[in-house]
Design a protein that fits this description.
- Two copies of one chain form a homodimer.
- Chain A is built from three helices and two strands; from the N terminus they run H-H-H-E-E.
- By secondary structure, chain A is mainly alpha-helical.
- In chain A, helix 1 packs across helix 3 and helix 2 packs across helix 3 (52-64).
- The longest helix of chain A has 14 residues, at 15-28.
- Chain A starts with 14 loop residues before the first helix and ends with a strand.
- The chains hardly touch.
- Chain B binds a DNA duplex (21 and 21 nucleotides) through residues 9, 14-16, 40-42, 45, 50-54, 56-57, 70-76.
DNA sequence: CTGTATTTGTTCGTATGTATT
DNA sequence: AAATACATACGAACAAATACA
């Protein structure tokens, strides 16, 4: 029903890692297609029920992994796999 | 008296609530008359010595309270009392 | 009609304080 | 002590709507 991903603050995995994993899965699954703009970071924080800080850590991971690209003032985009 | 609005960043009340309260008082007092356009949000931020973000939060409160109306690209106006 | 200036709207970036682990 | 997590606030970049010459 929910469709809302369960981020468990008391889970074995760190909150921001849980968020990063879930976001990566959405990219892998094609829910977020290449070149598409992701929801704003603050919206994602709301969506996942976590702090902006945690989303920032999560997106930092995905950026390091080359999955996304972020542009100041514009948004975050799914990087096409070359 | 002072004319200088003392927004205390370390006060018990949140910054944007302090700003909202001060703005509401200016409307109540008649300093800002009905249908008048308020100073631009960024100017208010300067005036109060707070961030644009805080002014946005404050005006959002006043909009919810029905004290002001904002039009994209035009400005923010004091709502006439019914 | 075509710019240009003004003003609000959106989004990412950074800093700080507190609490918890 | 150090890292995580949350909340607030400030700052910067990008964008859209409006007005007007």
């Amino acid at each position: 029903m929910s469709g809302v991903p369960a981020i468990d603050p008391n889970g074995a995995e760190l909150v921001y890692v849980q968020v990063a994993n879930h976001m990566a899965a959405r990219i892998e699954s094609g829910e977020w297609e290449p070149n598409r703009r992701l929801p704003p970071e603050r919206e994602l924080a709301d969506f996942y029920g976590v702090s902006y800080d945690s989303v920032r850590r999560a997106t930092a991971m995905l950026r390091e992994q080359g999955l996304i690209v972020t542009v100041h003032g514009r948004g975050t985009f799914v990087k096409p796999r070359h």
